[in-house]
Design brief:
Blueprint: E1 2-3, E2 6-12, E3 18-26, H1 33-43, H2 52-60, E4 63-64, H3 68-77, H4 80-85, E5 107-113, E6 125-131, E7 137-142, H5 148-163, E8 168-171, H6 175-184
Parallel strand pairs: 3-4, 5-8
Antiparallel strand pairs: 1-2, 2-3, 5-6, 6-7
Helix pairs in contact: 2-3, 5-6
Length: 185
Amino acid sequence: MEDNGLLFTRHWQQDDSPREDDAMLCVPRGDNLGYQLFHKYHDIELGGHFGANRTYKLLAERFFWPRILPSIKSYIKSCDTCQCTKPGRTTPRPLMMLPVPQDCWSRIGIDFITKLLTTGSGNDCITTIIDHLTKRVHWFPMKESMSVQEFTWLFVKHYVRLHGLPSVIVSDRDTRFMSDFWQEV
């Protein structure tokens, strides 16, 4: 069917009669129109950067050209936004399993809860020390801007005086911090 110089096609019903409600524009091969349609139905914010199947369903309702699905898949593989934001297909690696400690307070975890409101005494951070065997916890306030030396003094005051030095400290702080900390202890 031709209308205003454009070629349309229709879906056919099972009795070989055309459905009147769904004319599809035939997109010429090698024309830039296909790329423009991909951009309109996939790239714009309202399009949502859907995957190939959903983009195909949106386009196939109104447009037709040979090998439309492989063209869509190729376009989506070259979409920078999709490649940067799509979730990975690899399974996450399991967390490192640590052996069960033999004694209380021999292996501890130190973590810092930061970006808190500043108290009247100027503290804006909470240090948590967790015993990996009993799961008992010590908390003490500190300033996020404290030096390693100041933190070491607090660690001795709040932990070492009660339990002595641990054999192992697990922390997500960088190695430089932990190295400086052990030197101070």
